[in-house]
């Protein structure tokens, strides 16, 4: 469900490093500088201005050693957009004036490097497998930076570095009296591809930078770092640690104490912790900020008072699986200003909890738990400083006095299951910026008053409410508008130039033309347009040239007809485009070629025809063109789609052979491809990391599933392909689902099929394949769905736990196959068959013909729908898969 995140990041003040080692050289340099400056001042006063020119040449500028070190760093890295263009040995420009370089005002030695990459102003997708074309990349040698002996601050965040190198001999030679670098501030966050040329990157960092006070490595994949906490305990001076989105798994729950005695800020958001809360966390005596949100932590909060009770200011544990009562000791946290426990399973009486909270609270989020009781104005008499409030659950009752005017002025308000009356006190909140009401049966009457109030908001979210109103004449004026599942009807409402994000999915809106062709004062800034799952009908008007700012367009599951308008080519910034399951026809317009940033093209379930264009953007990640009327061959250019994760060309009229170059789709070669999450940049002040999730729908394992996490899938089923299965397919080791069924493919299955170790679903049914089933398939341990039916396979079904776990429906329609799970015995296993055995074998032959005919008919009817539960019953050993339909981060 949607939820609101507030970024409470408190950066450490920039620190200047003056170590004992540096004292003598700095003192000498300082003395020389003072002497020269005094001499210049006297000369200028006594003589003339020409003396000043002479003096300028005498003043010590950037240290030559530092300059050479920086130039070496520049030479090592790749700089596609010229970020370091000012870094040159030009005598007219001192290295202290180079971009990102900060020097000490007295010694002119380099003390800080600020080189983060700015992706906020770009149209890039921020998922882990996508390059950032304008950011610094390549590798850099950390040992070379040790030559910057006074460097205390290093920020290389949000770039695209691949490798950190360490030359330990060089490092030790460069150190004079310290065992590690003088760097106090290190930020390498969101270099998604970064890894060390040594194992245990965290251990190396803690060894080399033992003086660190600030460390941010968020977004770097540490899934192999099983002992990450132990690696960091040597950082005794560490004040602030950020390891968000790092795929960490082990949080050492039984460890009583962690040697992080100075730590004040700990952020471990969005990892894979699935244990109870760790004991060491509550024994950190100086911690002021804790955020372990968006994990899988379970169990209860401790009932005894934590050691951080005198220091903690912010405790964020939202979106976990925590349960039990909210402990009374929260009332003893005198410094607590932020408490976020939403999206858990906490229980207890809400009135007791609210009246026990400390009066300094600014942020309180308790919604989406199992709290009970009644919420009224009486519960808030001590909470006058609130700015951010989230309340509500299925079991809470709101009972506010209609004349109540709160003592607080909120900026953010989240209410769940509110009603039946709209709380009138909300209209007194003149500072409100974000309002989120969901799962409520609340009357917004009079609607005019509500829409007028909503115009002041920066963000408005109304989700799954029973509003049932015509919004044709409403003008939306908030920067972010999310209004899903409200039964809104009429035309799509107009928006002001202020709106950047508009989601009206899952309503009953019928006409999009007035919206797309509306006139507007000022520049249009809309970047996201989601109106899926409505009742939109008619043609898409040729007015898209009015919306050149769009990044995402989702109009799937409507009743739109006609062709894609040629004005689609005006959307040069477009990244995501979905028209799935409408009634559109015609060819894909050539103007779509001008959408050079397009990476998600989802047009399945229409009546598009013609050939598949060869000019589709090589950066495409999802290409879903299934269930249309495309004909011709697969263009060879498909092999150049190096970022492709999903290729769905199923249920068309395509023919020819399958290209043998599909192994060039390199993003499917990585065994870690499925760990990625598709994210698209959104700009709102409430974004924690600046993106929203993309969800996509695929048919795999004979089910229609919605995914947020990446899945590598190739589906070429129900076409007219012939020839053999190309060997290149078996090089795509990241592939999880492969469907080549209902074609005319011949030949045998290569032994190399076992390279697809992550494959979960394999369907080769209804082809002309022959030969034996490779024994190597028995080692494909992730395989959950297998269908080899209705071919000409022969011989014994290989033995092995995996292959023997499937039913006979995986193999029927192959008269020459034998062995379990089929009842037909192989010749080497046969004894004299009795009449029952013969009868069973005859029945198998009859069943094979019927089943193959049945499969073919079912596929023509849209198989998952035609066979429903029966199909799943025999063909799926489905695990509990996690899939979501849109999860918003505001």
From TrEMBL:
Highest rank taxon of the organism: Eukaryota
InterPro entries per UniProt: Leu-rich_rpt, Leu-rich_rpt_typical-subtyp, LRR_dom_sf, LRR_N_plant-typ, RLP23-like
Topology within the bilayer: Single-pass type I membrane protein
Principal location: membrane
Pfam families: LRR_1 (PF00560), LRRNT_2 (PF08263)
UniProt keywords, alphabetically: Cell membrane, Glycoprotein, Leucine-rich repeat, Membrane, Phosphoprotein, Receptor, Repeat, Signal, Transmembrane, Transmembrane helix
Region ranges (Disordered): 828-847
Listed Basic and acidic residues bias regions: 828-840
Location of this chain's protein in the cell: Cell membrane
Record keyword Transmembrane present: yes
Sequence ranges assigned to domain Leucine-rich repeat-containing N-terminal plant-type in this UniProt record: 64-104
A single Gene Ontology CC term: plasma membrane
Family affiliation: Belongs to the RLP family.
Protein known as: Receptor-like protein EIX2 isoform X1
Organism lineage: Eukaryota, Viridiplantae, Streptophyta, Embryophyta, Tracheophyta
